[in-house]
Amino acid sequence: MAKLKAARATDVPSALPPEPDIAADLDGLAAAASSCSCIRAGAAEATTTAAEGRPLVVIGHRGKGMNTLVSPDPRLRGDVRENTLRAFNDAAASHPAVAYVEFDVQVTKDGCPVIFHDNFIYTQQDGEISGKRVTDLDLDEFLSYGPQREQGKAGKPLFRKLKDGRILKWDVRSEDALCTLREVFHGVHRRVGFNVELKFDDDLVYTEDSLTCILQAVLKVVLEHAGDRPIIFSSFQPDAAQLIRKLQDKYPVFFLTNGGTQVYADQRRNSLEEAVKLCVAGGLQGIVSEVRAILRQPSAVAEIKDANKLSLMTYGQLNNVPEVVYVQHLMGVDGVIVDLVGEIAEAVSAFTVTAVQASGSQDGGGGVVGERMETAAALAVAAGTTPSFSPREMSFLLRLIPELVQ
């Protein structure tokens, strides 16, 4: 997926051939798993595996990972405040394989794009916790929350409301101030690209005029300050995704979807099939799916990538498991958004390198694809750096995983 680093939307990578047929028998799955991610060459013979010819793009979720405050895993609680300059730069510095950082953009009442995930921001005053909608704040008030860049200045304490309704003090080990989109362009290492998620509230109804106003405010900053930095736009809001594509053709646009793992009133958000329809109708370049949807429905990879020539990335907590990322790599997924940025980037780098080493020991013929996969697995096991299962074991996983994630 190296072409994603190019600036123009037309440079997004083309689709790859189909993934394994989950309905096939185990031997058939083994053969399919060995060749599922071969690069299209316009011929029947597949001669290059995904691991040999296509690096898996690693994207830091909200920088160096989201702050899951109640996670039993301290790594997932976050050692740095999400969606801040420090989070983005720490992700960039964590491993060379981290190609992008992902962050959430909202627009304040006075028209300034800022970086923040939640729809509401909470603080405590006189013992009472109160929340305000981020888009109802002007810029100065938004920046008054949390740590302050100005030395000696105290900000309002930050709290976060969880999905179960609890409101907790938002503490992390390494703090940083909230920031604007403009600050991110100037304050984050230019080595990494930006996956700009256009954030909207599911509980609000947006007119086309209101969406246009918000998106134009974001576009103005991007076009003025991006320079040659790779940019991807993405959004869960179907109309916003299609509209940002109409407003510009310089950067690729991806539609974010839960792929049916949650149900919404808008049917366009409820399945991978609907996501494909929306992308094709709107001229979008790709889909970012919840990873469980892809694992439940592996045949969708072929529909997305081969039949409709879209790129495919995934997000979700399962992307913090190296074995799950490895399975996706073999299926043909182009990129993964992850929280354990350094760990997953190291794993991706390791299994990519071992696969390339394995390919170098073969003669390049289509008949040795399975042998390449076996050799790559053997090298990985010897190095102790990559999930240690053979193509036959991988085939079993590809059959089993859709059941496990139901």
Automatic annotation (TrEMBL):
- The UniProt record lists the GP-PDE domain at 56-348
Chain segments annotated as transmembrane? none
Q: Which GO terms describe its biological process?
A: glycerol metabolic process; glycerophospholipid catabolic process
Keywords, ordered alphabetically: Glycerol metabolism, Hydrolase
State the reactions this protein catalyses: a sn-glycero-3-phosphodiester + H2O = an alcohol + sn-glycerol 3-phosphate + H(+)
Which superkingdom? Eukaryota
What InterPro entries does UniProt report for this protein, alphabetically? Answer: GDPD (IPR051578), GP_PDE_dom (IPR030395), PLC-like_Pdiesterase_TIM-brl (IPR017946)
UniProt enzyme class: hydrolase
EC nos: 3.1.4.46
* Molecular function GO labels: glycerophosphodiester phosphodiesterase activity
What PROSITE patterns does the annotation carry?
GP_PDE
Can you tell me which family this protein belongs to? Answer: Belongs to the glycerophosphoryl diester phosphodiesterase family.
Protein name (record): glycerophosphodiester phosphodiesterase
